[in-house]
Design brief:
Helices cover about 30% and strands about 30% of the residues. By secondary structure, the protein is of the alpha+beta class. A six-stranded mixed sheet has the order 4-5-3-2-1-10.
């Protein structure tokens, strides 16, 4: 038995419907929502501002302090509130992905706080969080060398699939499922974040990168349109 059909009817290279909007949290310096299907993330940016505690200050550059959290009822089995090993790891990789495109030398001794909150989770939450955070940074007016866009590519059995869901991640027949979240820069197409959960041959990994490039281009288009003030909801657009 091979994986022939996706449970939600999408083509192998099709993203879930995207929602994207900036300016959703008036008190923040920048904010955004990014959703892919049932995965919904919001991000708020505060700063750049003087860093406290003082011992963390870097006299030659600023830092990005990124927090990732899930609302307790974002998943069917209530997520425990507060930091966990998983949330700390995702906060760190998301912050690193963002830091690679921000010229932090412009902000000595400063911090840019980035808070990512997952409102609803159906896999790919780190990618949705990074997409929202990148939009929120741009919305805050933080100068970025390039934009970043993120998507999780999967290998389910022998098929490369774009933007995998939790149900797909849990596929155990045949070769099972491999989850590969990618974050790519908009112009130079560099990888600023790549993780791999499962196993995959090198030639198939290259294939997954090609799928990520195409998918990230679509994500980028939505991020850019949202930053121009559009309220993007592809769920509504597909019903038109
Ligand atoms: N998940 C969950 N409870 C948790 C953590 C994760 O139900 O405490 C689910 C949730 O749907 C999440 C998915 O498992 O999106 C995959 O989690 P993973 O750690 O692979 O990160 P993600 O794909 O969300 O970036």
């Amino acid at each position: 038995m091979t994986y022939e059909k996706r449970s939600d009817g999408r083509k192998m290279d099709e993203l879930r419907p995207i929602m994207a909007k900036v300016g959703i949290i008036p008190n923040a310096d920048g904010s955004a929502l990014f959703a892919a299907g049932k995965t919904i993330a919001i991000a708020a940016v505060y700063g750049p501002k003087l860093l406290h505690p003082a011992h963390m200050k870097k006299p030659d550059r600023g830092i990005i302090r990124c927090n990732y959290n899930m609302l307790p009822f974002s998943v069917s089995e209530r997520a425990r509130p507060g930091p966990s090993r998983r949330s700390k790891e995702i906060g760190m990789v998301s912050g690193n992905a963002l830091a690679s495109v921000v010229d932090l030398k412009r902000f000595p001794n400063a911090v840019i706080d980035v808070d990512i909150m997952i409102l609803q989770a159906d896999a790919g939450t780190r990618c949705a969080g990074i997409n929202a955070a990148a939009m929120a940074l741009a919305h805050a007016g933080v100068v970025m060398k390039e934009m970043i866009s993120s998507v999780a590519i999967g290998k389910i059995d022998d098929k490369i699939v774009t933007d995998i869901t939790k149900e797909e991640e849990d596929y155990h027949d045949g070769e099972g499922a491999t989850d590969i979240p990618y974050t790519l820069t908009s112009n130079t197409k560099q990888i600023t974040h790549l993780q791999l959960d499962g196993k995959i041959q090198v030639n198939r990994l290259k294939e997954s990168y090609e799928a990520a490039k195409i998918a990230c281009e679509k994500v980028l288009d939505c991020q850019k349109r949202a930053l121009k003030g559009e309220d993007i909801d592809e769920n509504k657009e597909s019903k038109k």
